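Hi, here's the filled form for the chain we discussed.

Project: internal
Contact: R.S.
Residues: 223
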Amino acid sequence: MFKILITEDDRELRQLFEHVLVKNGYAVQGVGNGVEALQAMDDGYFDLIISDIMMPEMNGYELVDSLRQAGNSTPVLMITAKSGFDDMRLGFLSGTDDYMVKPVNVNEMVLRVGALLRRAQMINERRQVIGSTTMECDSLTVSVDGVSTVLPQKEFMLLYKMASFPGKIFTRQQLMDEIWGYNSDSDTHTVDVHIGRLRERFRDNQDFRIVTMRGVGYKVVRS
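And the returned structure, exactly as it came back:
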């Protein structure tokens, strides 16, 4: 059974989410802020986190950033009253995986939770499938309609990272740090060069495309 941590300071809303998720077969624990969430994660494992943004002591942005800085890749669904693009941008840049705006349709929330959990399982299996395109980590192979291509390691890792979270925006620095490492002597222009090569390789691919987010970075979207 998947276990979900709900981080929400509104007690009634937290209890509503808990009720709906338990009814749909999930194990759930609720906490009131980011500090309590980190404590709960120290005490046990969670498959997914649902987090509000505006909370006392530690807000949602700070919680997700703290997790990602520590190397924790647990999927995060951020739920908030903040509907502006800048708020959403901050959420994605902090490392959140999906975003919903209050008032929340709880049925949609359940669907998004299921999608995030399936995606996380695929990543753990070191295999990613988008339409007729299959990416195999162990062989650095991308297969499209049965035709396989072995990519250089950095190109594969770059594509696989973004394809694992379709629609999520990655900054150049995030990609640089994760693929090349924090101590790399290369600059972020290296990311642009590799993105250009990937676009050329897969310019005719019907399953996905790499989108430039001006002033931010890149994302992979399903076609």
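Let me know if anything looks off before we file it.
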